[in-house]
Write a structure and sequence with these properties.
The chain has 145 residues and is of the alpha+beta class. 15% of the residues lie in helices and 38% in strands. The protein is built from one helix and nine strands.
Protein backbone atom coordinates (compact mmCIF):
# COMPACT_ATOMS: atom_id res chain seq x y z
CA UNK A 1 0.00 0.00 0.00
CA UNK A 2 1.51 3.38 -0.97
CA UNK A 3 2.66 5.59 1.92
CA UNK A 4 0.15 8.36 1.10
CA UNK A 5 -2.76 5.90 1.14
CA UNK A 6 -1.63 4.46 4.49
CA UNK A 7 -1.52 7.97 5.95
CA UNK A 8 -5.00 8.81 4.60
CA UNK A 9 -6.36 5.56 6.04
CA UNK A 10 -4.85 6.36 9.45
CA UNK A 11 -6.43 9.85 9.42
CA UNK A 12 -9.86 8.37 8.61
CA UNK A 13 -9.55 5.77 11.38
CA UNK A 14 -8.56 8.44 13.92
CA UNK A 15 -11.43 10.68 12.79
CA UNK A 16 -13.97 7.88 13.17
CA UNK A 17 -12.60 7.03 16.62
CA UNK A 18 -12.90 10.66 17.74
CA UNK A 19 -16.46 10.88 16.37
CA UNK A 20 -17.39 7.69 18.22
CA UNK A 21 -16.10 9.15 21.48
CA UNK A 22 -18.07 12.33 20.92
CA UNK A 23 -21.35 10.66 20.00
CA UNK A 24 -21.26 8.03 22.73
CA UNK A 25 -19.36 9.79 25.50
CA UNK A 26 -21.05 11.28 28.51
CA UNK A 27 -19.93 14.73 29.61
CA UNK A 28 -18.02 14.84 32.86
CA UNK A 29 -18.80 17.06 35.83
CA UNK A 30 -18.28 20.83 35.80
CA UNK A 31 -14.67 20.16 36.71
CA UNK A 32 -12.98 17.01 35.42
CA UNK A 33 -9.41 15.83 35.50
CA UNK A 34 -7.06 13.32 33.95
CA UNK A 35 -3.68 12.00 35.00
CA UNK A 36 -0.98 11.64 32.36
CA UNK A 37 1.04 8.50 33.06
CA UNK A 38 4.52 7.23 32.37
CA UNK A 39 4.90 3.69 31.04
CA UNK A 40 5.99 2.56 34.53
CA UNK A 41 2.63 3.75 35.91
CA UNK A 42 3.75 6.84 37.82
CA UNK A 43 1.99 10.16 37.20
CA UNK A 44 3.85 12.55 34.90
CA UNK A 45 1.25 15.28 35.39
CA UNK A 46 -2.41 16.17 35.73
CA UNK A 47 -4.78 18.13 33.51
CA UNK A 48 -8.06 19.66 34.77
CA UNK A 49 -10.88 21.13 32.70
CA UNK A 50 -13.10 23.73 34.38
CA UNK A 51 -16.35 23.96 32.41
CA UNK A 52 -18.16 27.29 32.21
CA UNK A 53 -17.84 29.28 35.42
CA UNK A 54 -16.99 26.32 37.67
CA UNK A 55 -13.60 27.81 38.61
CA UNK A 56 -13.43 31.46 37.62
CA UNK A 57 -10.14 31.87 39.50
CA UNK A 58 -8.65 29.83 36.62
CA UNK A 59 -10.85 31.38 33.90
CA UNK A 60 -14.06 30.50 32.08
CA UNK A 61 -13.84 27.17 30.22
CA UNK A 62 -10.25 26.71 31.25
CA UNK A 63 -7.58 24.06 31.45
CA UNK A 64 -5.13 23.81 34.32
CA UNK A 65 -2.02 21.78 33.55
CA UNK A 66 0.43 20.67 36.24
CA UNK A 67 3.74 18.84 35.94
CA UNK A 68 3.64 16.14 38.59
CA UNK A 69 7.15 14.75 38.35
CA UNK A 70 10.04 17.20 38.10
CA UNK A 71 13.20 16.28 36.21
CA UNK A 72 11.52 13.39 34.34
CA UNK A 73 12.29 14.92 30.92
CA UNK A 74 8.62 15.37 29.87
CA UNK A 75 6.41 18.41 29.30
CA UNK A 76 2.68 17.99 30.12
CA UNK A 77 -0.13 19.70 28.14
CA UNK A 78 -3.76 19.30 26.98
CA UNK A 79 -4.97 18.56 23.46
CA UNK A 80 -8.57 19.47 22.53
CA UNK A 81 -10.94 19.94 19.63
CA UNK A 82 -13.96 22.22 19.72
CA UNK A 83 -16.26 23.97 17.23
CA UNK A 84 -17.45 21.36 14.77
CA UNK A 85 -15.54 18.49 16.34
CA UNK A 86 -16.85 16.15 13.65
CA UNK A 87 -15.44 18.30 10.84
CA UNK A 88 -12.05 16.88 9.74
CA UNK A 89 -11.00 20.35 8.53
CA UNK A 90 -11.16 21.75 12.08
CA UNK A 91 -7.74 21.29 13.61
CA UNK A 92 -6.70 20.02 17.02
CA UNK A 93 -5.50 22.66 19.46
CA UNK A 94 -3.03 22.50 22.32
CA UNK A 95 -2.46 24.36 25.56
CA UNK A 96 1.05 25.46 26.42
CA UNK A 97 3.02 22.77 28.15
CA UNK A 98 4.52 22.84 31.63
CA UNK A 99 7.67 21.27 32.96
CA UNK A 100 9.31 22.06 36.25
CA UNK A 101 12.72 21.44 34.66
CA UNK A 102 13.70 25.07 35.05
CA UNK A 103 10.22 26.25 34.05
CA UNK A 104 6.72 26.71 35.38
CA UNK A 105 5.16 23.79 37.25
CA UNK A 106 1.50 24.79 36.61
CA UNK A 107 -0.44 26.99 34.23
CA UNK A 108 -4.09 27.79 33.55
CA UNK A 109 -5.53 28.96 30.26
CA UNK A 110 -9.08 29.82 29.19
CA UNK A 111 -9.99 28.29 25.83
CA UNK A 112 -13.39 29.97 25.42
CA UNK A 113 -15.46 32.79 26.81
CA UNK A 114 -19.24 32.70 27.27
CA UNK A 115 -20.62 30.40 24.56
CA UNK A 116 -23.75 28.37 23.88
CA UNK A 117 -23.33 24.88 25.29
CA UNK A 118 -21.24 22.75 22.95
CA UNK A 119 -19.51 19.40 23.21
CA UNK A 120 -15.82 19.02 22.75
CA UNK A 121 -13.19 16.38 23.42
CA UNK A 122 -9.87 16.64 25.21
CA UNK A 123 -7.04 14.60 26.65
CA UNK A 124 -3.83 15.02 28.60
CA UNK A 125 -0.54 14.48 26.79
CA UNK A 126 3.18 14.61 27.44
CA UNK A 127 6.10 15.34 25.12
CA UNK A 128 9.68 14.24 25.61
CA UNK A 129 12.05 17.16 26.05
CA UNK A 130 14.88 15.22 24.36
CA UNK A 131 13.39 13.57 21.26
CA UNK A 132 9.94 15.30 21.08
CA UNK A 133 8.08 11.95 21.27
CA UNK A 134 4.41 12.49 22.19
CA UNK A 135 2.27 10.17 24.34
CA UNK A 136 -1.38 10.87 25.18
CA UNK A 137 -4.19 9.40 27.27
CA UNK A 138 -7.65 8.55 25.87
CA UNK A 139 -10.02 11.36 24.91
CA UNK A 140 -12.95 12.30 27.12
CA UNK A 141 -16.05 14.31 26.26
CA UNK A 142 -16.95 17.55 28.03
CA UNK A 143 -18.94 20.74 27.51
CA UNK A 144 -18.03 24.35 26.95
CA UNK A 145 -20.65 26.60 28.60
Amino acid sequence: MPKRLKMAKAVVVLGVAAMTVMTTGVAHAATSSMNVYHAAGNVAGTVWFNSGTSNMAKGRNSFTVRDGLCDDGWTVYAQYKKSSWNNPVVSWRYTDGVSCNGGTRELSVSISGDVSRQKFIWRGCKQSESNLKVECEDYISDYLD
